[in-house]
Design brief:
- The protein is an alpha/beta fold.
- The chain has 3 domains: about 100 residues; about 80 residues; about 130 residues, Nucleotidyltransferase, domain 5.
- The protein has 12 helices and 5 strands.
- The chain has a 5-stranded mixed β-sheet with strand order 3-2-1-4-5, with helices on both faces.
- Helix 9 links the parallel strand 4 and strand 5.
- Helix 5 packs across helix 6, helix 6 packs across helix 7 and helix 7 packs across helix 11.
- The longest helix is centred in the first third of the chain and has 56 residues.
């Protein structure tokens, strides 16, 4: 009624109404003054509290600033230094994240995963399929049928992927067990079709294989460089055919080696070409250069194991060397 009364009373008449109007207005002004005084008291209280906090802050900041200045840590603003240093002794403070990181337990050393991890079939089935495919003149569908007779249902595409994945791993795992390569090399090249195009395959028995789209000096040079870097052996005698690219390459890379080009000197490697062609015949054509390199390398590896060029199974019977070697190499990868 204090704010609405004057307007209500103003509608009345007579001297009593005017006197009542004056009393109400004075009372309203008095209430307004009291409200302003109350707000001023509140503001004064807040100001006093703020001053008190500021005084406490200055009491702490002053000594800290002095200690930081003594230590040469006042390069930046005081707020930055206080964020990085303790407000009591001035020492560098540790953030909560740093403390958590330092108290975390060290992780154990990672365990190397097996090469067979993630495959649906056990390692013995995969190794058996790869060994059959590399050893015998079988197609992928032939391997699929042989596995199905033994209760293993697998698609021929899986056989192809196993061969491409595990053949290089098995050959690399057996490399430390390979006998030292001799210094008398027999080198020759043969031909095969890949996706309808002729490819040249440079081979050296028990040494290396190289697939090239051309038969020229550059391809021969790359083959010898790869073979020398792989075996770390410098041959003293190299037997080849009478191809025009060999003399210049050997003169450049192996000037001290004897280049032998007798008519029947390369009969041994020529006969080995026949075993490779017999293995590639059931495949009904090759589609990629990488697949050709893997299969030819795997075939050479299998023949070397059977001939006893690896210490891994040299004491085993010839007809069991390959099976024993693949079973032991499966544990190594």
């Amino acid at each position: 009624m204090l704010f609405g009364a004057p307007e209500h009373v103003a509608t009345g008449a007579g001297s009593h109404g005017g006197a009542h109007r004056v009393v109400v207005v004075e009372h309203g002004q008095h209430q307004h003054r009291r409200r302003r005084q109350h707000l001023a008291q509140l503001a004064g209280g807040f100001h006093a509290v703020a001053l008190r906090h500021l005084q406490v802050h200055n009491d702490h900041v002053g000594p800290v600033q002095q200690r930081l200045a003594d230590r040469g840590l006042t390069g930046g603003g005081l707020g930055d230094d206080l964020d990085r240093h303790c407000c009591i002794c001035g020492d560098r403070a540790r953030s909560r994240q740093t403390v958590a990181m330092r108290t975390r337990r060290p992780r154990p050393a990672p365990v190397s995963r097996s090469a067979f991890a993630g495959f649906c079939f056990p390692p013995n089935v995969i190794v058996l399929a790869v060994r059959w495919y590399l050893r015998f003149s079988l197609s992928r569908r032939d391997v699929e049928e042989l596995l199905a007779e033994r209760g293993v249902e697998v698609d021929h595409v899986s056989v192809y992927r196993w061969v491409q994945r595990f053949t290089p791993l098995l050959a690399e795992a057996a490399r430390p067990c390979r006998h030292a390569v001799g210094d008398r090399w027999q080198v020759d090249e043969t031909y095969l079709k890949v996706a309808g195009q002729w490819r040249h395959v440079y081979r050296a028995i028990v040494i290396d294989v190289f697939v090239s789209a051309r038969r020229d000096g550059d391809a021969a040079r790359r083959f010898f460089e790869q073979a020398i870097s792989t075996t770390i052996v410098t041959p003293v005698e190299v037997t080849t055919d009478r191809a025009a690219a060999y003399p210049a390459v050997l003169e450049e890379l192996l000037p001290a080696a004897w280049h032998r080009t007798d008519q029947h000197a390369s009969n041994q490697i020529e006969a080995d070409h026949g075993r490779l062609k017999a293995r590639l015949r059931p495949m009904r054509g090759l589609k990629q250069d990488r697949s050709v390199g893997v299969i030819i390398t795997g075939h050479a590896f299998v023949q070397s194991v059977r001939r006893g060029h690896y210490e891994l199974v040299v004491e085993e019977p010839v007809n069991q060397r390959l099976a024993v070697a693949f079973d032991e190499l499966a544990l190594a990868i």
